[in-house]
Amino acid sequence: MKIRLLLIGKTEEDFLKTGIREYETRIKRYIPFELVEIPALKNAATLSKVEQTQKESELFGKCIQPGEIVVLLDERGKEMRSVEFASFLNKQFITGSKTLSFLVGGPFGFDAQLKKQASFILSLSKMTFSHQMVRLFFTEQLYRALTILRGESYHHE
Prior knowledge:
The structure is a single chain. The chain is α/β, with parallel strands linked by helices and 157 residues long. The protein has one domain: 3-Layer(aba) Sandwich (Alpha/beta knot). Helix content is 42%, strand content 22%. The chain has helices at residues 14-27, 49-63, 82-93, 112-117, 131-149; strands at 2-8, 33-38, 69-79, 99-104, 120-123. It has a five-stranded parallel β-sheet with strand order 2-1-4-3-5. The longest helix has 19 residues, at 131-149. The protein is globular and about 50 Å long. The relative contact order is 0.23.
């Protein structure tokens, strides 16, 4: 299985780029991983929140293949401890799907239609994080989950 992280817009801060690259390198030691940056909408400021999330969902839709497992990262999704997330990943690995894609939306999240189509909605916390910070937090948690599955010492519990 391959894991993809689909993002709206580019990562802007250098400190985030550095951290994400570090975890991306680590993740690739375990599993094929691809980070896909979908260009941000032009003239987004002229769109309503609903219009913006709809257009972003259309962009995501162009990147998603039939049969792909799609997980949205959304503050209103299901929360998991790191060990639970590792178990969730393990279950996805045995489904036979070729690709597991995690999506990070823009500042207003996802539209209702994309939420209905998703296989799962995952929350990293009850707190709200910027969509820029979520990228780093998620890549670290993905790496952590992979080390848990391998029984390595990165995660302490």
